[in-house]
């Protein structure tokens, strides 16, 4: 699995896709956090990074599927999937290596944004006047969100040989899991609205953004990842049906 992870990660770094994804993410977040007056931290008056944490999930919604769309679809189109599957590797090792490579690259995009935290920390009045617990929780939420989106993207890529279709399916799937349940809950009333909202990512992400690291939220994210990766495994096994 580690060999596949290294191969896939190096393949990303040797292609323009990775640099386009990282560049778009950093430019978009930088403009909204520091430049645009309606969302700039400098004009907002409060020492926090809420703009970043509200915007990043929507950018990830498109950028992570762009990373994952080639994982299996490209192998199928090039005819190398049969060669890969005949190697002395389990389906779990193949899926795990490709999935972790995509996730690692997505997490790499978050590393430069730590400079935003340092800047706000220094600019605060007094210095350090920022809710560090909420910031750490938000970064954890973004990392888990990226893990879920990457798992959905790998699943979408395993279902088709066309990268564009894999991208579109992944975007729709990520949107439904992130915002679809919240939208459905908004038209419901009573306890049913609460339970429906808990099926989506947004509610759990908001809890983590407050600095509340609840085991139920962690279990939710890991469960969604496990289900998506297991579905990917079934999709690969379907070749034998």
TrEMBL record:
Pfam families: ABC2_membrane_5 (PF13346). One of its GO terms (cellular component) is plasma membrane. Keywords: Cell membrane, Membrane, Transmembrane, Transmembrane helix. It is a multi-pass membrane protein. Its main location: membrane. It comes from the Bacteria. The chain crosses the membrane at residues 12-35, 55-73, 94-118, 138-157, 164-181, 218-236. InterPro entries: ABC-2_transporter_component, ABC2_memb-like, Motility-assoc_ABC_perm_GldF. It is found in: Cell membrane. NCBIfam families: ABC_perm_GldF. PANTHER family: MEMBRANE COMPONENT OF ABC TRANSPORTER YHHJ-RELATED (PTHR30294), MULTIDRUG ABC TRANSPORTER PERMEASE YBHS-RELATED (PTHR30294:SF29). This is Gliding motility-associated ABC transporter permease subunit GldF. The gene is gldF.
